[in-house]
Write a structure and sequence with these properties.
- There is one protein chain.
- The chain has about 375 residues and is an alpha/beta fold.
- The protein folds into two domains: about 1-170; about 175-385, Rhomboid-like fold (Up-down Bundle), CATH 1.20.1540.
- The protein is about 65% helix and about 10% strand.
- The strands form two sheets. A five-stranded mixed sheet has the order 1-2-3-4-5. Strands 6-7 form a two-stranded antiparallel ribbon.
- Strand 3, helix 3 and strand 4 (about 90-95) form a beta-alpha-beta unit.
- The chain is elongated.
- The N and C termini lie far apart (about 85 Å).
Length: about 375
């Protein structure tokens, strides 16, 4: 009985809301320094990406205005961290005084809910529109300590399952396909070299990416060209890049998706090369590797809560730096790099990211891939011929 008396109405509502948003809607708590008497929850896949549960007493318009100002500043930081252009926020106030007289919903991006008792949640029009099942999910047969134990147990179980999924996703695995592709690149360089430079140059001339030859029917060059390299340093740089980036993509997306992205990116890179590069010959796996960078960028966007800083500090600078080097350094086929980057992004969109992209998004991705492939093929084989 004593344990039940310790749970006032505000605490019970808070627990029920946490149970709903965490276990039903997969929101995650946001750790904010210096913020007291508030719980911030985030799910970037929902229309309402941030939910605040505010137990602090808001006694007048001035305090509400300050709360609004503080919320907007924090949301701006979340936008920068998560690469989000638009974030809707729902603030659920559990202790708002009658002295607050101003319109609390004047900002469409900041939805404010005044909750004095549980029935206010069920009757609120905004909640019924954004979270239509919340009212029905607030019903529990347990009370007091039993309710606290059930909600705590459910949340802990959900957090353990979520942590297990993340551990499985980010756990290091042996990148067999990456090793195989590196081995193939090495074999295509070393074996011809055993017969001398003339033999290797002959292979390059016969199998390189060369627009006029491809347009007369030598389509195999679109793929064989990405297996050849112009020298030991070219091979070493691409193999190292493939090892670093490829291992990550194979780890995150799986072996089959990784291989499909690699080959498609190489193909689109080759098509860009013969479209915009004139009649110059091109070789190297860098177009396919740029496609892996595009895949990593797409994956990082969906897991930006975990990889947001990595995307900003490593992935984006790496892409920009390599493209910049390609523009200022003679002899580098930057058109293949750009084509591979776009191809990698689009194919990853079509294949999808596990637990993140919906079937609708993947279908749209395949449609875009098909349209884009037809479009660039037309320019490569007909318009540029």
């Amino acid at each position: 009985m004593e344990g039940e008396l310790m749970l006032d109405d505000k605490s019970v509502i808070t627990m029920k809301l946490l149970h709903y948003f965490i276990t039903e809607k997969n929101y995650n708590p946001i750790i904010l320094q210096g913020v007291e008497n508030e719980i911030w929850l985030e799910n970037l896949e929902e229309d309402c990406k941030v939910v605040r549960i505010v137990s602090n007493y808001i006694h007048n318009d001035e305090q509400f205005n300050f709360d609004e100002f503080k919320t907007k500043r924090i949301v701006q930081k979340i936008k920068r961290k998560t690469f989000s252009l638009h974030i809707n926020v729902m603030s659920i106030f559990l202790d708002m005084g009658d002295n607050v007289s101003r319109d609390i919903n004047h900002d469409s991006n900041l939805m404010c809910i005044n909750v004095k008792e549980e029935n206010d949640i069920k009757k609120n029009d905004i909640i019924k529109k954004v979270f239509p099942d919340l009212g029905s999910k607030m019903k529990y047969t347990e009370k007091g300590v039993e309710l606290f134990a059930k909600i705590t147990s459910d949340i802990n179980r959900h957090n353990r399952e979520d942590a297990s999924r993340m551990e499985k996703l980010f756990r290091s695995k042996v990148p067999y396909v990456t090793y195989f592709l590196i081995l193939v690149n090495i074999i295509f360089f070393v074996v011809p070299m055993l017969f001398g430079y003339d033999a290797y140059n002959s292979i390059v001339e016969k199998y390189c990416i060369h627009g006029p030859s491809i347009r007369v029917g030598q389509y195999y060059r679109l793929f064989t060209g990405i297996l050849l390299h112009g020298g030991f340093m070219h091979l070493a740089f691409n193999c190292y890049s493939l090892y670093v980036i490829g291992a990550q993509i194979e780890n995150f997306l799986g072996k089959v998706k990784f291989l499909v992205i690699y080959l498609f990116s190489g193909l689109i890179g080759a098509l860009f090369s013969i479209t915009f590069g004139g009649g110059a010959a091109s070789i190297g796996a860098s177009g396919a590797i740029f496609g892996l960078m595009g895949a990593l960028l797409y994956f990082g966007y969906y897991y930006r809560v975990y990889l947001g800083n990595v995307v900003k500090s490593q992935i984006l600078p790496l892409i920009v730096l390599n493209l910049g080097i390609g523009f200022i350094t003679p002899g580098i086929d930057n058109f293949a790099h750009i084509g591979g980057l776009i191809g990698g992004l689009l194919m990853t969109m079509a294949l999808g990211v596990k637990d993140k992209t919906s079937s609708f998004e993947r279908i749209n991705g395949w449609i875009i891939v098909a349209i884009f492939t037809i479009f660039i093929s037309y320019f490569a084989f007909i318009y540029s011929a």
